[in-house]
Amino acid sequence: MFFLSGEDDPVGEMGKGVERLMNVYKAAEIKDVSLKFYPGRHDILHEACQEHVIGDIVEWLEGLYWQEYL
Questions:
Q1: Which of 17, 35, 55, 62 is most buried, with most CB under 10 Å away?
Q2: Distance CA 2, CA 22 (A)
Q3: Pairing state of beta strands 2-6 and 34-38?
Q4: Which helix (H) or strand (E) holds 4?
Q5: pLDDT band at 22 (very low <50, low <70, confident <90, very high)
Q6: Distance, CA of 57 to CA of 2 (rounded, Å)
Q7: DSSP structure class, residue 43
């Protein structure tokens, strides 16, 4: 599971809520849980960092593919 969030997102309590949710998944022993914060609010796919966000998503998905098929 890959959590992405804007570091200034009030919906995610400025990162605190997202970190709590990630920890719930980790406590449930879900493997490969990671979190990445980006500059901005909650619309990180349309912020100035969008290319970086998309690149990180693609990299994460490629990692899943290679774990599955190698």
A1: 35
A2: 9
A3: parallel
A4: strand 2-6
A5: very high
A6: 8
A7: -
